[in-house]
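Researcher: Here's the sequence for the chain we discussed earlier.
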Amino acid sequence: MAKEPDKTEKATPRRRQKAREEGQVAKSMDIAISASLVSVFLAFLFYIPYAFKKLYHIFVHYFSNPLHNIPEYNYALLYEFIKELALLILPIFALLLIVGVAANVAQIGFLITFKPLVPKLEKINPIAGLKRLFSLKVVFELFKNLLKLTVASVVSYYLVSYLLDGVFRLASSGIYDDAYLMLKYTLIMILGFALLSIPVSVADFFFRKYEFEESIKMSKHEIKEEQKLYEGNPQIKAAIRKKMREMSLTRMMAEVAKADVVITNPEHFAVALKYDRGSMQAPKVVAKGVDKLALRIKEEARKHSIPIEENPPLARALYQACEIGDYIPQNLYEAIAKIFAKIYKKRGL
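Model: Thanks. This is the structure I predict for it:
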């Protein structure tokens, strides 16, 4: 649950990742228990016929041969007998292990962390312990366990009442009938508890999910601090952007000094072009600007004796059609060619 009243905001992805690294995840142990019960029922249902035959052969092999009654062989026979039984029940334990791992992976994915094992002082704080004692989590756990105990007791009573008649017949029936009835009753009991555990585990999972979301909530101040930590201080970022703009402007003004012509509006737009007939396929925009920036471009052009041509429609068209570093579009070739022809004529080229 949220520890402070001001923690009202949903956790950020970084907060969630940090909680996961610390072992804080929404996980229900009842999901694993429910899955194990269902798996055991299905395993018994399909595995018992084979296991019963195998067990029958084991007993026949070890107890029907008179040579096995020799005392010198007792330890070796006991070892072999235990090994055979262990191999027989090993698939059930392996299935439970796989189902337990799969149930947890399905809830939280693959996660290996030892941070929850690290001792924490707040866990042994008596005041914090008293607060946890009266928390919603403890109330929910108490209610859930009482409900499970009550339902299990009621179901056990009715199941035992239903099965009691068959139990009384065990004394007068053969060993195969006895084994069949015991297996049947065992399966019925497992299935009954498995079906009861499903709604309990689903409710527990959603409560864990809700509890986890509440526990990782953040305050608005924490979110701002996280943004500053990972994204940088806004003032510093603004200063960096300003510096980058200044550097970009300096580079652009240096290109204006190398331009062949600046086409203006004459007040609002200014576009500087450069053309090298030996290496360029068309004139290239090396600088452009509006208003104050346009005035600076013209000032820089005058400082380096770059021709300035006033042509408002062409200046607007170039500004809108081209970015810095672009070649001029083909539809403007003719208009630009006339300007360059005029400049070359003045230069005597």
